[in-house]
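Restriction endonuclease type IV Mrr domain-containing protein: structure, please.
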Amino acid sequence: MMTLTPSVYDTVAYKITNLLFEKALTEFELEGELLSLYSISSENIRDLLVQMKKLNIVLFNQDNKWTLTEKSILLVENNDTRLPTLLSSFQFGEIPSLNFPEEVLPSYKHNNNNSDNKLYLLKNEVEEKIVEYNNSLKSYIKELLLTTNPFRLEEIVIEVLVKSGEGEFGIGTPKTHDGGIDGYIYDTLLKRGGMPIQTKQHAEHRYVTAKEIHSFLSICRSKGARNGYYVTTSYFSDTAKTTARLELCLIGGEKLVNLIINSKIGLLGQSGGLLTVDEEYFTRPPQPSGVKFQISTD
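Here you go.
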């Protein structure tokens, strides 16, 4: 048997397998577990999940969550030694050739039922289309965030943070001469007062630097705040992340899109549990300064 050395993707795939063995997770929940552990992007995770699905390691269920296939579950339960090189083993054709005893793997008995095969293929096709649709939805939301009125973007960020449970309510600052603070979240888990927010509408190639983080930290301290939120439609440099440390909550473009989807801000429900974009929400004019944003009690 060929001896394989785990690649970076093998390591992440192994972690995903162990996480999904415990319970089914949404892509956003998986990102929350993985981004803090590995130097990879949300796009890397998405591509890896698609690859794992093609290899029948994971599947996307009807609840829009990722879960393990029956065969993968058995691999984990039997402590298969090839798990640490999951992707490489599949690519070299080793794991698909496993022969489990009939009493261990009854659901994989050969059958000639063409109807079952057709249903299985159709199910896989539907799952792939759902993943493709959700990826397109994320791309379109990101496009809208980059083109919406910058002041409207600041309001969207406040609403998303409130709806995501970051605070009881939020208030935007004046459109001009705001002192570098675009809004506040109040009654957060960390404190009862206001937590400053700065929002940057950057193109994807324009990352946030450590200098910008230093500047916002200084602004926060001048206002008597030790913590705050820095939100961008792009991403943060490694030095920016280091500079922020535990003082700032950093939200990049990918995470912002995921928060929008999970909180269903600016989205409309469709049949089958799919979501579509409410374009009017993203393109409406900004509201006057000082408007209070909070979760509706309706």
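Notes: Residues 144 and 190 are 31 Å apart (CA to CA).
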